[in-house]
Amino acid sequence: MKRKFPLFLVFIFGILGIIPFLIPHPVVQNTDDFLRNNLLRILAAFALVLGLGSLLKVHMDKIKRKRQNWQYSWILIISFIISSIIGLFGGVAGTGPLPTSIGSFPFDIQTLYENIIVPLGSTMFALLAFFMASASYRAFRARSFEATLLLAASFIVMLGIIPFGDRISHHLPSLAQWIMNVPNVAGQRGILFGVALGTIATALKIILGIERAWLGGGE
User: Fold this and answer.
1) What is the DSSP string of 97-156?
2) What is the pTM of this model?
């Protein structure tokens, strides 16, 4: 029963998610709107609490067992508690009952987001650019015909989209645009088609109970 009940719920709600695409009746569409706009929000709230509880449990266990880099778990927990208190009692823009400024130094959630989260995200993407450059260098080395083709296409596109490419040849920008519009779009559509088929196959396996790894048993 412990495993059959979640499978039953997934089957029912999976079928309810498919039916509105096949039956345009108002009753079916209204039921679908209720499920998507009301029930999903309630489930998302429970999932948020469950996820936060799981996050704290994992990091508390890591601290308790002194696992690798356990000191960073203290930073996460302390940051979580402080930001939760500021967010719950101080409001997003500092309009709550909790004071969120000391003199001219505000520390409301919006200020924390703009001055901590946004710079950290920019730093992560800046580091990602170096990783992408390193991966591109390894992928573009002309070890095979496919890698040589990829190297030539990327070289033409990079030269074609900068002003210097037009000075080398007037045909280079149009060739780069053709590569972007025809082979690139064709490849993207092929990948998206494969992703869509894979998504449908995985969804059917989960709805029909064939794929049960999400239950935690690995069956």
Assistant:
1) SS--EETTEE--HHHHIIIIIHHHHHHHHHHHHHHHHHHHHHHHS-SSHHHHHHHHHHHH
2) 0.60
